TrEMBL record:
The gene is pgl. Pfam families: Glucosamine_iso. Residues 14-234 form the Glucosamine/galactosamine-6-phosphate isomerase domain. Its EC number is 3.1.1.31. It catalyses: 6-phospho-D-glucono-1,5-lactone + H2O = 6-phospho-D-gluconate + H(+). It comes from the Bacteria. This is 6-phosphogluconolactonase. One of its GO terms (molecular function) is 6-phosphogluconolactonase activity. Belongs to the glucosamine/galactosamine-6-phosphate isomerase family. 6-phosphogluconolactonase subfamily. Keywords: Hydrolase. Pathway: Carbohydrate degradation; pentose phosphate pathway; D-ribulose 5-phosphate from D-glucose 6-phosphate (oxidative stage): step 2/3. Hydrolysis of 6-phosphogluconolactone to 6-phosphogluconate. NCBIfam families: pgl.
Length: 249
């Protein structure tokens, strides 16, 4: 985990400390980009503490809302009114109070199917970026937030699924998830997620220990294959660490 190009592992005492470090890193990337900043959010339970922090009185005032745009790396193909909708969680927790509406870019789930929704979001990302080819010298996102599922998926890129190998399309529809909730998904692909200054994984809690152990052992799972063209950071808490590593820290 220390060789060049490898994810950098940062261990925090607990999920609260992890969320604070994640918030500081997001803020540092926004501050380092004096222009229009783009943050790619994620879903599931892992980012909730971070979102709550960013929505708190102390942190809200630190965010330059007028120059930050908020995207999402994957979505469950359910209406925004459904509690399973990833962007709806981010909106309710921190975006709705301060983000200008035009700066929040949800994956549309009103299209006829996940493929149509994926195509629409690809067009939106390309319009924002100003090109349909990514220039390695000009990343699409400042930060891409990620989580790791129990099967090693990340975003909605599941192990063994064809979508993980996609190199051409920016966004793909995924007919059925490998883990609950078993609803269709829409996901950005690895090359698009890689187009960022920092990819930041949040992996916390005892339940994550089995999958973190597999990832640290180098299993070729989507969460290990997802890498930034810039920096990749795995923020983990002690509860998620395998026993033998925990004893050494
Ligand atoms: O829509 C989703 O479910 C996600 O974006 C997904 O990739 C998530 O990050 C992992 O499954 C981890 O999920 P938890 O954070 O709930 O463990």
């Amino acid at each position: 985990m220390t060789a060049a190009g490898q994810p950098k592992l940062i261990v925090e005492a607990d999920a609260e400390a992890l969320a604070r470090t994640a918030a500081e890193r997001v803020m540092a990337r926004i501050a380092a980009n004096p222009g229009r900043s783009a943050i790619c959010l994620t879903g599931g339970s892992s980012p909730k503490k971070l979102y709550q922090l960013l929505g708190s009185e102390a942190w809200r005032g630190r965010i330059p809302w007028d120059r930050v745009h908020w995207f999402i790396g994957d979505e469950r193909f359910v209406p925004e009114s459904d509690p399973l909708n990833n962007m709806a969680v981010a909106r309710a927790t921190f975006l709705d109070s301060d983000a200008p509406p035009g700066h929040v870019h949800p994956i549309p789930t009103t299209a006829e199917d996940p493929d149509a929704s994926a195509a629409a979001y690809a067009r939106e990302l390309q319009a924002f970026y100003g090109a349909d080819r990514l220039d390695p010298a000009r990343p699409l996102f400042d930060v891409v937030l990620m989580g790791a599922g129990p099967d090693g998926h990340t975003a909605s890129l599941f192990p063994g699924y064809a979508e993980i190998e996609e190199t051409r399309r920016w966004v793909v529809g995924v007919a059925k998830a490998n883990v609950a909730p078993f609803v269709p998904r829409v996901s950005l692909t690895l090359p698009i997620l890689a187009s960022c200054r920092e990819m930041l994984f949040e992996i916390a809690g005892h339940d994550k220990r089995p999958i973190l152990t597999r990832l640290l052992n180098g299993e070729n799972l989507p969460a290990l294959r997802a890498r930034s063209n810039g920096e990749t950071v795995w923020l983990v808490d002690r509860a998620a660490l395998p026993e033998e590593i925990r004893g050494r820290r």
